[in-house]
TrEMBL record:
Stored CDD domains: SDR_c1
Protein known as: Short-chain alcohol dehydrogenase like protein
Molecular function GO terms recorded: oxidoreductase activity, acting on CH-OH group of donors
Family as reported in the entry's similarity comment: Belongs to the short-chain dehydrogenases/reductases (SDR) family.
Amino acid composition bias (Basic and acidic residues), ranges on this chain: 17-32
Residue segments, region Disordered: 1-37
NCBIfam families for the chain: PRK06701.1 (NF005214)
Signal peptide positions (record): none
Polar residues bias spans: 1-15
């Protein structure tokens, strides 16, 4: 099959991470696919990386299901304000918080702001991430390793530590891992390592909190069309993004968001320590 035949997306790049949804062509599809049924009525959710991509789609779906939302994002203010508008369009309240999840003080402050605004916290979604492809392991600098681990796994620890005093029986924690945790990625060694760590963290934390009635699960997306893609990969890779899946295309954020909803609501009341795999049919999972 030729390169042209495999093209799944228009060629494009962005010059820095985390990337901006407003600059993507086409824009990721975040719209929920069905009317809400009140599955999160009265709940409050905090979603890191909630300004765009999977985080935005989950935030809007949670809002449609009755939750008030706080989103924590790095510096994508325009995307965050659009997500706020979309949540308010669903008739819910949105609190936007800018900050780096790799800083424990930011995580504590974010949780404090949520509790001050809404009076509680029911659902924590750890979703913020970064990745930096390198063809040679020698090119991965100590600074890159530190940065990737600080965002992708340290930040999950810090958010959970900050949230725990406010979580109670019936609360849920959902961690975003990746298909790369299961099948690896030759050019994303540090990123894949953090995503594997998230799987182990999720399973271990689930065991730790089961007796308190707090469920901990994960979602391992495959290739999903988010701002991280054009801000990470060169044009040729973006053009063929998702073509190597059995479905021969990338997924959209609104195809992943229902996994988060299922794990956040009482539909999954007897599920903890597991990972869902919306990945276009990739058979590599465990």
């Amino acid at each position: 099959m030729s390169s042209e035949q495999q093209q799944t997306m228009p060629p494009q790049v962005q010059d820095k991470q985390p990337g901006h949804e407003t600059e993507m062509n086409p824009r990721p599809d975040y719209e929920p696919r069905y009317p809400g049924s009140g599955r999160l009525n009265g709940k409050v959710a905090l979603i890191t990386g909630g300004d765009s991509g999977i985080g935005r789609a989950a935030a809007v779906l949670f809002a449609r299901e009755g939750a008030d939302i706080a989103i924590l994002y790095l510096n994508e203010g325009k995307d965050a304000q659009e997500t706020k508008r979309l949540i308010e369009r669903e008739g819910r309240t949105c609190l936007t918080i800018a900050g780096d999840v790799g800083d424990p003080n930011v995580c504590r402050s974010a949780v404090d702001q949520v509790v001050q605004r809404f009076g509680k916290l029911d659902v924590l979604v750890n979703n913020a991430a970064e990745q930096h492809p390198k063809k040679d392991i020698a090119e991965i600098t100590p600074d890159q390793i530190d940065r990737t681990f600080r965002t992708n796994i340290f930040g999950y620890f810090y958010m959970v530590q900050a949230a725990m005093p406010h979580l109670k029986k019936g609360s849920a924690i959902i961690n975003t891992t990746s298909v790369t945790a299961y099948r690896g990625s030759s050019e994303l060694l540090d990123y894949s390592a953090t995503k594997g760590a998230i799987v182990a963290f999720t399973r271990s934390l689930a065991q730790k909190l089961a007796s308190e009635g707090i469920r901990v699960n994960g979602v391992a997306p495959g290739p999903i069309w988010t701002p991280l893609i054009p801000s990470t990969f060169p044009v040729e890779k973006v053009k063929q993004f998702g073509a190597n899946t059995p479905m021969k295309r990338p997924g959209q954020p609104n195809e992943v968001a229902p996994s988060y909803l299922f794990l956040a609501c009482e539909d999954s009341s007897y599920i903890t320590g597991t990972v869902l795999h919306p990945n276009g049919g990739d058979p590599t999972e465990a």
